User: Which sequence fits this backbone?
């Protein structure tokens, strides 16, 4: 996959970061038909505090959703 912005690059030294957020689809989610039912993504952070702020921001319903749209992603804090 091509990335148009450097901050989206996979080469962001995430292996040195210990605190993460895992994003997954719930079982039976129709998006899984397109991207695969086992899809997940991980974002890594340098500190637990930074991760927790990002987690809280990800839990907020963003304004770009239509009123009838409900995000179904599962977001979970992880550590290594």
Assistant:
């Amino acid at each position: 996959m091509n990335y148009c912005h450097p901050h989206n690059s996979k080469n962001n030294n995430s292996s040195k970061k210990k605190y993460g957020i895992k994003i997954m689809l719930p079982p039976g989610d129709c998006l899984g038909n397109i991207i695969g039912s086992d899809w997940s993504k991980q974002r890594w952070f340098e500190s637990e505090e930074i991760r927790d702020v990002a987690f809280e921001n990800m839990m907020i319903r963003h304004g770009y959703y239509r009123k009838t749209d409900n995000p179904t992603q599962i977001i979970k804090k992880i550590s290594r």
In short: Residues 24-61+70-80 form one domain. The beta strands are 19-24, 40-45, 74-79. The mean pLDDT is 85.
